[in-house]
Amino acid sequence: MADASVEIVEGCRLPVLRKNQENEDEWPLAEILSVRDAPGRKLYYVHYVDFNKRLDEWVTPDRLDIKKLQFPKKEAKTPTKNGLPGSRPSSPDRDVRKSLDLNVQSASAPSRGKTLPTPKRKAESVSLASQVSAAMSVPSLPSSAEASQASVYPAVREAFSTKSREDEQLTSITTNGTTRRILPSQPGRKRKNCGTDEVRTEDSQDSSDGIPSAPRMTGSLVSDRSHDDIVTRMKNIDCIELGRHRLKPWYFSPYPQELTSLPILYLCEFCLKFLKSLKCLQRHLTKCNLRHPPGNEIYRKGTISYFEIDGRKNKTYSQNLCLLAKCFLDHKTLYYDTDPFLFYVMTEYDSKGFHIVGYFSKEKESTEDYNVACILTLPPYQRRGYGKLLIEFSYELSKVEGKTGTPEKPLSDLGLLSYRSYWSQTILEILMDLKSDNGERPQITINEISEITSVKKEDVISTLQYLNLINYYKGQYILTLSEDIVEGHERAMQKRHLRIDPKCLHFTPKDWSKRGKW
């Protein structure tokens, strides 16, 4: 449907034909990110607006609806002040933003020993999520120091009036005719972003130009989105052959430039070395002695094994693993300094060796109680319970370490779904196993749930809220389990066949605070 007389340039928006999940035609709005010449025609790389980037693709002109073409808007020139170019007029919303940022800064520091406010006695659910900014006024759960306990008993959820879930969303303010969201406070180092008054919080110790000034000893793998450009927004690898699987990457990954033009990138499934041709791979396999990931096997049950890999001792493997993972993770960045991280690779065994299924990484020392930095199940193994098995294994390690843990934020859309499902099933499993004493309702504290599961307290609270279980009634917090919740949980547990057996785990935590052990 493209008209040859109209030149379509980068930044244009128009409807593009694609197939939905039901294999039906639809015309979502898409943005043109790049144009390239192919023999006899042009190809357009499009990003579907309001869709995940993994759906981005090259399309032919016949899939474009040229009648609804929207050209990119010209950027407004910077207004001048006192005749001097480059000077910026004062913005009426800047003071509001400053005050918001100051609130976020002051509220992000945890207050120890402080008594949390008690909500009104009106029957309502507690609006407290793990990522809600402390600058917002929300009722909170009392701490265990106040000896508050939540009673658990089956009841119809409609018996209590509950707040709309919209109350849990981040609030926004309107200034100067534009709506601005109040961003959640994130722990980490704060610094000012050049050219604005907004304060950015970052965990990574990067310099302002995006290049690490020195090897990082700690920190997160959260991607700094301010350095995104048109190159990193586009997939650069068409296909990856890994063992008996061929994978279509979802996102950009910084493989060497000369490999990005190949129709297929070949990887050794044991050492993850990347090669440019099948002949090179076959020659490599005659010399590669690995039949499992390097490192220590710390868990085995049936055909499932876990290997612990030190990012310092096995640097090449760790870097290759990060390159592969970046093809399917958009919110994480890639560091060639893998020294501060441990990698736990899950494998499936057969007669040919241990085949990688997925992995998660974690910092050797985390100041934020993160027990996962990156987590990934490779696409051929998704929707088979392996993702939840990786999450369960990360919490089993936290139990051995005697700590509570939480995944590093932000989570991807699929990661959030997996974690929310795992938290819900784990907490409901505990609540349904509670026994009543002397005919009274069983009681349990949030801290006790956290200690049993090693799930961080904030994640327990947000999960109870997400399930709409927690209510404030007659001066105390109660957890109401409706029949729908119980039946849904039982159906989900029947499908969950893969579980971690703590008896098969052979793991001794190390004290990484001593640099000599690095």
UniProtKB/TrEMBL annotation:
Reactions it catalyzes: (S)-lactoyl-CoA + L-lysyl-[protein] = N(6)-[(S)-lactoyl]-L-lysyl-[protein] + CoA + H(+); L-lysyl-[histone] + acetyl-CoA = N(6)-acetyl-L-lysyl-[histone] + CoA + H(+); (2E)-butenoyl-CoA + L-lysyl-[protein] = N(6)-(2E)-butenoyl-L-lysyl-[protein] + CoA + H(+); 2-hydroxyisobutanoyl-CoA + L-lysyl-[protein] = N(6)-(2-hydroxyisobutanoyl)-L-lysyl-[protein] + CoA + H(+)
Which keywords are on file for this protein? Acetylation, Acyltransferase, DNA damage, DNA repair, Metal-binding, Nucleus, Transcription, Transcription regulation, Transferase, Zinc, Zinc-finger
Keyword Metal-binding in record: yes
- Give the protein name, as stated in the record: Histone acetyltransferase KAT5
According to its UniProt entry, this protein's organism is Pygocentrus nattereri
Q: Where is the composition biased (Basic and acidic residues)?
A: 91-100, 194-203
Where would you say this protein principally sits, based on its record?
A: nucleus
Q: InterPro entries from the entry?
A: Acyl_CoA_acyltransferase, Chromo-like_dom_sf, Chromo/chromo_shadow_dom, HAT_MYST-type, MYST_HAT, Tudor-knot, WH-like_DNA-bd_sf, Zf-MYST
Give positions of region: Disordered: 70-127, 161-225
Q: Which family does it belong to?
A: Belongs to the MYST (SAS/MOZ) family.
**MYST-type HAT domain: which residues?**
232-509
A GO biological-process term: positive regulation of DNA-templated transcription
Q: Give the Enzyme Commission number.
A: 2.3.1.48
Q: Which PROSITE patterns does UniProt cross-reference here?
A: MYST_HAT (PS51726)
Q: Is the keyword Cell membrane in the record?
A: no
One GO molecular-function entry: peptide 2-hydroxyisobutyryltransferase activity
The cellular component terms of Gene Ontology attached to this UniProt record, alphabetical and capped at eight, are: NuA4 histone acetyltransferase complex; nuclear lumen
Q: Where is the composition biased (Polar residues)?
A: 170-179
Enumerate the Gene3D superfamilies for this protein: 2.30.30.140, 3.40.630.30, N-acetyl transferase-like, Winged helix-like DNA-binding domain superfamily/Winged helix DNA-binding domain
Where does the UniProt annotation locate this protein? Answer: Nucleus
